Amino acid sequence: MLTEHMLKHILAMNVVAPAAVLAGRGFFMHRVSFMHRVSPSRFLGVAVVLQIVLMWVWHLPAGLAFAAEIPSALLAMHFSLFAASVLFWAAVVGAIGTRPWGALSGLLVTAKLSCLLGALFTFAPRPLYAGYIASSSIQPDGSALEDQHLAGLLMLTAYTFSYIGAAVVIVARWLSETEKAPAWHDGPA
Fold first, then answer.
1. Rg (CA), the chain
2. Quick check: 176 pLDDT over 80?
3. Which residue segment(s) compose the domain that 136 sits in?
4. Total domain count, the chain
């Protein structure tokens, strides 16, 4: 079912990937050595574009049908989305200390485009994934549309909480650090 498929992606991309990056922050920041050769803002931009492009391409009707028909394509879908997500979260975490505006921009752009995809799933008047339905055990009746709508609602909810939640944490941290800075307390003489 599409809902089950989305739950796997949500858990991998919005729970496991950021948790892995935060847990292994030193590992990821050290191992992604090319990040030191590329400007952090460019690295973040590439990570944002890669994640968005892969998410949209794999969730086009043809992409999802292809993945449903060929087991290795489904594995490639899951792996590439997870890897892009790890890269994205590593870029966001890496930008927090030096370029918080960049991290916020990356989160908000990705959230907006991910939520747009979820909204398409949720508000479509008919099943968008006839190829996926045909290649799976789902029957092309009303339950397929309900499944698609539920998958879209899960996407909307998960992406809002994870990306916007991360942005709120970054802003709170940034404001806290700004408040502690000596220049913040110095008023006009």
1. 19
2. yes
3. 2-181
4. 1
